[in-house]
Amino acid sequence: MIEGTTEGLNKAAVFICHCSGNISEHVDINTVKKTLKAEGISVYDYEYLCSSQGQALIKNKIIKGNLARVVIGSCTPSKHGTLFKKCVKEAGLNRAGLEIANLREQCAWVHHDREEATEKALSLLKAKLKRLENAEPLEDIKVDIVQQALVIGGGIAGITAALNLADNGIPTFLVEKDSSIGGQMAKIGKIFSPDKLAEECAMCSLSPLMNEVAAHPNITLLTWTEVEKLSGSAGNFTVRLKKKARYVKDNCTACGRCSRVCPVLFEDEFNCGYMDKKAISLRFSQSVPKVYCIDPDHCLQLNGGSCGKCADACKNGAIDFSQKEEIIELNAGAVIVATGFEEYDASQKPQYGYGIFENVMTQMELSRVLGINGPTKGELLRVSDFSKASSDPAPSTCDSRCESLSDDTSEAETPKRIVMIQCVGSRDEKEGGNCYCSRYCCMAALKHANLIKKRYPDTDITICYIDVRAFGFYENYYRAVQEAGVNFVRGRPAELIEKPDKSLVVRVEDTLNQKIRELPADLVVLSAAMIPSQGTKKIASVLNISQDESGFIKEKHSKLKPVDSSLDGIFVCGTAQSPKDITDTIGQAGLAAVRARAFITDSPKTLENEIASINQLLCTRCGECLNCPFDALSINESGRVVLDPLICTGCGYCTELCKEGAVKVAGFTRPQLKAEIEGVLEEGDMLGFVNSGIASLTCDNIGNSVLTYPSNVKLIRVPTCLVVDIDLVLHAFRHGASSVLFVEDPPDNPRAEAIYPLAVRHFEKLKEELGDSGNRIHFKKAYVPNIKGLAGTFTSLAREGEMIK
Amino acid sequence: MKAIENIPDRKLLLFKSCMVGQEYPGVETATRYVFDRLGIDYCVNDEQSCCTGIGHYTDIFEGLTTAAIAARNFAVARKCGYPNITCLCSTCYAVNKEACELLNTSAEVRDKVNSIFKEKGFYDLVYEMGDMDSRTNFYHAVEILLSKVGKIKEEKKFDFSGVKAASHHACHYYKVKYLDVIGSPENPQLIDTIAEACGASPVRWYEDRTLTCGMGFSQLHLNKNTSLQVSKTKLDSLQRAGVELMIHMCPNCHIQYDRYQPVIEKEFGVKYDMVHMNIAQFVALSMGADPYKVCGFQTHSVPLEGFLEKTGIL
Questions:
Q1: What ipTM describes this predicted complex?
Q2: Which end of chain A, N or C, is more open, meaning fewer C-beta atoms within 10 Å of its C-beta?
C-alpha cells in the first residue's frame, strides 16, 4: 500500500454502523452482509462506527487488509463525514478512497418497511462501491497566508479590532480616511453606563485607546489615507492605498501656533457645521496622530494665493507645501472592514424642518453640543444662540474646561423646552426612509434627556416615540430617566411649525389617548437613522463584497457567521455591518479580530479540494470559463487558464461552460456520477440530484422529523445541480429513472445568490434540450424548514414512477 | 415607488374628468396643448365614461358598480390601443387604479362584473385577470409632464422667474396608493419640479403643506364649516408665506380653493392675495398659450387678470 494513493482498487470493504438500532432496527444488516459477501466484498458491522472503538476497527481493517476502497454506511456525511475522512487518512488511505452511504437520514428513518429499507440500503452501498471504482486520488491543496492584517476605518470598531489583532501578535495596518482616528465616537460628548445609571466622558474612554493604537509596536497607523484597490485573494490580498498629502511633516509638535495665525475660518463638519475650523488644524484637540493637517480645499497658499503664515509661525519647519500624495501597496492575509455609519439626512423629512428651521438639530449634533470640546464648550444652547457662545477655537481639554463653563454665554439662552422625535428615517417604509430600527437612538435620546435634566433641572423634555427599545439592562436606565421627570408621548409627530421668535411647535397625536397635541419647544432634536457611511458603500464596491438592500455590508450568516463578509478572508464589524451602539460595536469588533487572527494563523491553509481543476491538454483557452460567478478563473501571464483555489467554491458552473470537457470538479467527475447512477437506480426510481449545502440538510431533516417517502426515491449529493449535464440525465433515464429532480439551495446566502439563478437557467435549458422528455425533470428549491413540502414532492414523483413501472 | 424613467409617453388614453370638463375645461385643453408640444402619443376617447369617483365618495355608487364601470372603461382603453390610462383628476386616478387591483385580486368581484356583462351580451367588456396592470397602466397627467421636464424647459417661451408659487399635491394621488407614487408622499415635489422648470420659485416648505384641501366630497356639503375651516388653515399659512400663486393637480382641490376662496373671505372676514391654477395651465402659459382660449381662465372664480398683468402675459 502506497500512502496517499488509491492504488489496488480491487481491495474494497464495506463498514456498516448499527447506530444503536437507529439503522439496524429498520435495515436487516445480516441480509445486507450476506448479499455483499456473496459478491466477494468484505463487510464489517459495528454498534457505533463513530466511537473510538469503531474508528479503530476501520483503521485496523484498512491497514491489515491493505484496503484501497472503503464505503461506510452510517448517518449523513454532514454529521460524521469529517471524522471518517480523518480516520481513513490516519490509516494511510487517500480520502478519495472513502465514500459514505447515508443509511440513516435517507434510508432507515424514512422507509419504515424493513424489506424496502434493506433493499435501498443495498443499492446505496453498491452505488458507492461502483463510484469508488472511478475515484482518482485527491491531493491536498495548501496555501500560505500572509502574516499581517489590514483594518479599514479608525472608529471605535476599527480601533478595537486593530488593538485585538495587535495584542495577539498580528502585525496590523489601520487605515483611516480622516486626519485622525476616533470616528463618530470622538464626536460624542458623553456615554452612559446602564448599571451605574451615570454618564461618563466619552473622550476619556476613547482617548487612551487611540493613544494605544499610536504606540502599539504591532500597529502601523495610516491616517488621511484611503483604500483604492484590492486584488489577490483570501490569505494573500494586495491592497493599494492612497495617502493624501497632509502638508505637515511628522515633526509637528501640535503647539497650535500655525492654527492661531491661519486667516481662514470655515464650517467644521466635525463640529456639526459650526464655523470654527481653520485651514490648518487638528480634527479635534485629542487627535491621533497629533499632527496638524492642511485642508487643501480651503488653504490660501495651496489655492494659488500667497499666505504661508503657518509656515512662518512654525518653529519646527514642519509645514511642507510641496508634499505630494503617495501610493502605498501592501499585502494582507485578512481584511477587517470597520467603515462605520453616517446620520440619515433629516432634511429628507421637511415636515421636521431640519435645514429649514434653525433650532432643529439631530441627536448626533446634540451629543456634539453637549461635548466639552464642542462648539459651545458643552453649554446647552439653541442653535440660533450659538454665536453668543464663546467662539475661541483654541484647543480645550476636558479637565481645563470643566470648571469654567458658561463664562461667555451670559446672553445666550438655554432652551427651556426640548422635544425629541424618535425614528426619523428609521422604521419608516415610505420613500426616503429606512425600514429597519437604528438600535441606538432610543438610548441616545434617553441619555441626552437625562444629562440635560441633571444639569438643567428646570428643562422640560418630551420624547415622542413609537416604541422605546431599551433592551436588556438598558431598561434600568430607561426607568431612571422616567423617574427623572422626562415626558414621553407615544406618537410620530406630523410636523413642526416655526414661530417668529424661532421657537417651535411640534404637532403630534398622542396615540395612547388619541388626542392631537401641540408641544411648544425651544429646541427640537431629531433621532435620525443610522445609515451606512459613504466610506462603507465605497469600500463594499472596492472590495466587491455583498451589501444588504440598505447598503450595509452583509454578513455570511446573520446568526452563525455574523462578522464574515461574502468573501473569505474579509471580515466586517461595527456599524458598517448594521446599526448598533458602542457596546455592541466593541463586542463585534473583538469577534472580527478573533476570526481574522484564526484565518491568518491557520497557515499553510489546507483547502477543501473538491473544487474545479483544468486539464491543460484539453483546454483551448477559449475563455468561456472566465464567466465564473466568483471570478475564480483567470488567464495568467503565459496564457493558461488558472484557478484560484481560495476563491473556487466547487459549484461546477465552469464544467457546463467548457465545451471541451477540460474542467471537472474533483470528486464529482462524470465517470464517478455515472457509476453512482448505475449503482443506485432501478426501474421506476425517482432520482434526485441534491445540492450538498442547505438542500442536503433539508433532505436529512425529513428523516430527523419522522416523515417518510417511498423507497424508490434515490438521492445523489452533488456540489450544485450545475455539474449535472444532459448526458447524466439521459444516463439516468437509460438506467431506469422515471423522473429526475434537482434540489437546489435557496438564494439566501451570497454563494447561493450567485448559484441559484444559474441553476434555474441551467434547468430550463436542460428541459428544452430534452424535448419530449423535458417533462420528466423537475426543480425544487429546498428551505430547511420546508421538509413536508419536499417529502411531498418526493412522494408524488415516486408514485408516478411506480405507476409507469 | 414609481421611477420617472418608466413613465410612458406612448399609447396614453387621456382620461376625461367630469370635474375638469364641467368646472375647468381649460385644464384639459391646456394639457392637450402641452402634450402636443411634448410629442406625447395620446388619444381622447368619447366612449369613455365617468369613473364614478364623485358618486362613489358621496356614497351614491357602491364598490361593485364602480368596479364594473372601471372594467368597461378599461375595455375602451384596450380596444382603441391606448391602454395607459392617464388621468387629469387624481380621484379618477385613484379610483381606476384601485378598481384594477380589485378586479385582478378578487375572483368574486370579477365574476360578478363579468356575469353582468355576459348577461347583457357585452362580451367585449369582459375583464380577465391581468388585462390591466394596476402599477403600470395608470398615470396622472402630471407624471407625464414630470417625465418631460427637460423638454418643458426647452419649450419655455415665457419665463415665470420670481413668481412665488406654492404647490398643493392631491391626496388621491399621494395618499391612497402612497407606496406607488413619484417621490415621498411626505415631501411631494411633483408640481414643484415642473413649476421650477418654468422658472417659478416654489416655496420649499410651508406650514400644513401636506394638509388636504378640505373638500372631502360629501364633507363640503354635510360639514361645510369644518371643510372650509381646513381650506382656510392652509390659505392662512400660504398667505403668511407670501405666496401669490397656488398650483394644483386635481380639479377637486382646484374647486375647493378657487370657488370657495371668495366664500371663505366673506364668511370669515379675511382677504387672500392668491390665485389658483392647474400645473398643466401653468406649463401651457409658459409655452406661450392663450390664457383664455387654451387655459380657459374665464371659468375661474378668483380672477387671474391681476397675476397675468403683473407677470406681463396680459
A1: 0.82
A2: C
